[in-house]
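*** Backbone structure tokens ***
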Amino acid sequence: MSFLSMPAARHEGDSREERRPRKTAATLTLERYLQDQATADDPNASGKPAFHTGRLPNCKLGGNHKPRLLLMGQRRSGKSSISSVVFHKMPPQETLFLESTARIQKESMHSFMDFQILDFPGQINFMDPTFDYEEIFGETGALIWVIDAQDEYLEAIARLNRTILNLQQSYPSINVEVFIHKVDGLSEDYKIDTYRDIVQRIQDELSDAGYENASVSFYQTSIYDHSIFEAFSKVIQKLIPQLPTLESLLNNLCSACRMEKAYLFDVLSKIYIATDTSPVDMPSYEICSDYIDVIVDISEIYGSEEPDKDDPGYGRANPDAESMISLQSGNYLYLKEINKYLALICITKEASAEQRGLIDNNVDVFQDALVQVFDMQR
């Protein structure tokens, strides 16, 4: 068994050279990240860093480095409902009473990664010359185009393709994400057929326009299940420069503690900003997401007093904020608060007292590495 932070056993005959402290896997990963960071932040560097993907897409050197998400699509496609459910914790049933958006809604989300959300009304023609293109797309990280799968979508596809082709001329680095929305109201067979038809039409039209192998991602979403949070997790992860480093650290943690899966969640939005490289299955993600709701609800009732924002320790993790529960399947869920924004949730099959100590120790090492990768003292 490989350990993340515990040194190998020593023997009486070991030399002084062999007694030097060994670097842990997490420490080595962190060192490689810090070495690559200078190269990644230099646009003229010839080498491509392995653990840092550079600046945020479309982010200017003098900008505030806050990624911007654009929500676009036809009227009544569900854009405002998505924003309300994911970022404002509105129950999905209450979105039925939302009014149609009449003007551009601009909101700033203050969480682990601050970003802006622009909700565009479906009736606005942002291609009109009177609109400031630079103001809209200048520092956009991702364009999220919402298509109502239960409605006629040919016009939505045509508008999307025109938008993509226009963006390729001036803003080719913007990530294009297509949410095929409201699939909860479709049968399984019709859902698959609709998804394939939309994807095929978009790719064929872009190919006919000379844009081969378009870098467009597609997601089937609904506000009535966890699919919308899963889709947003994938979108946000593409905007995190440190993602390769986070994945490597989580891989080390899973390997050292023999964990099935590990997620690093943004607590406020229930979006996971990183996970290990093993495949993600929706049931495990759903139960981890629901576990956050349980812990937050219990903390609001029995938790400690809200700290003063002027306190120098505000924003740091509560060292006692951790828990482990057993599931009927025989697995265990382990949660550890990283700071006031982030929580680590792991799925493991072994939770003996000895294993719990190993997990606690290695999670502490993981947490120390995260503090060095990010500036968490907000």
Summary: The radius of gyration is 23 Å.
